Amino acid sequence: MERLRALAAVDTHGSIARAAQALHITPSGMSQQLSKLERECGHRLLEPEGRSVRLTHAGRVLADHAAALMAQLSEAEHDLAALGEEVLGPLRIGSVGSAIRTLLPATLAILAARHPRLTPSVRDGEVGDLLPALLRGELDLLLIENWSNRPRHIPEGVAVHTLVTEEARVALHADHPLGARPVLRLADLGGIPWAACPPGAEPREALVQALRTHGVEPEIRYSISDHATQLTLVAAGLSAALIPGAARQQVPPGVRCVPTDPPLRRHVQAAWQPRTESPPVHACLDALACLPSGGGFRCRDESCPGGEPNGRG
Fold it and tell me: How far is the C-alpha of 1 from the C-alpha of 19, rounded, in Å?
């Protein structure tokens, strides 16, 4: 880089002497840099012009690249210097689908307004895939789900904070014999075909475990990851489905969502690694704190309605 800087300086100032003065080195030191650069690139870069020098065609080609590299290096130095004042760079978020629909749009809008040079990206997935990706350093922050009847083990070194706790209900066609009940006992839900998420997904495993605990072996006939699509099957009278609160905004006409006994609850949580908690992760947690479902987070931004010191610890 220093030899490229020397060539760019000669191109800018028109002579070795003036370039050396600009870079605060001796003319002989400048000549040595340029001679070594010629040997490295295998081209003659300078040729005499009277009592001075000028760049050859190869020299002009390389000087253009050198100028671009110098500009990029200067920009990198500026960005690093600004890290203490400005939140910028990538933020890699992993999330379950329901949180992408309900929490992330408003969160990303807040981040865009507060930190325009932040570049978030979002990866959709299941908790079983997202947590290992967080531990490998492929993701910076997760929005995951955790069910009360089947709490997931959180690996050591991962911090979690609950953003939303909501009740899940059984969606049934309004004409179903159980649809008129105010509460459904889990033990009474045998012999019903179900639509549920694919195997391994948290909602499906929570449903299976809840029913088996009460002596019911579920017949899962439809494996569909999207709750809205599951509800279309319920509306057609083909199945039942376990629907968390966030997805009940999509309930079609003719479907009833009935509470269970005992109740089933889902927690939507933020998860991250405190040892690698970067300014972008701080910023995203603060943005989540500004949502109505912020779950008790306190945003550090004093302009935020909840702008008290953040108590994440």
Answer: 15
Closest CA to 230 of 261, 263, 197, 181: 197
The dihedrals phi and psi of 112, each to the nearest 5 degrees, come to -65, -40
Q: How far apart, in whole angstroms, are the C-alpha atoms of residue 240 and residue 209?
A: 16
- Judged on CB neighbours under 10 Å (0-12, 13-18, 19+), 126 is buried
Residue 122 scores a pLDDT above 80: yes
User: Using 50, 70 and 90 to split pLDDT, how confident is the model at 72?
Assistant: confident
* Best CA proximity match to 282, nearest among 89, 122, 78, 102: 89
What letter does residue 169 receive in the DSSP assignment? E
Position 209 pLDDT exceeds 50: yes
Q: Which two tokens stand for residue 32?
A: 């040595």
What is the DSSP track for 8-38?
A: HHHHHHSSHHHHHHHHTS-HHHHHHHHHHHH
Q: pTM to 2 decimals?
A: 0.68
**Beta-ladder partners of 128:** none
Give 208-212's long-range contacts (Cβ < 8 A, gap of 24+). Answer: 209/149, 209/150, 210/149, 210/150, 210/186, 210/260, 210/264, 211/186
Q: How far is CA 302 from CA 162, 175, 290, 298, in A?
A: 22, 52, 11, 10
Return the C-alpha torsion angle 260, 297, 105, 131, nearest 10: -70
Phi, psi of 63 (to 5 degrees): -65, -35
> By the 8 A CB rule, do 243 and 227 touch?
yes
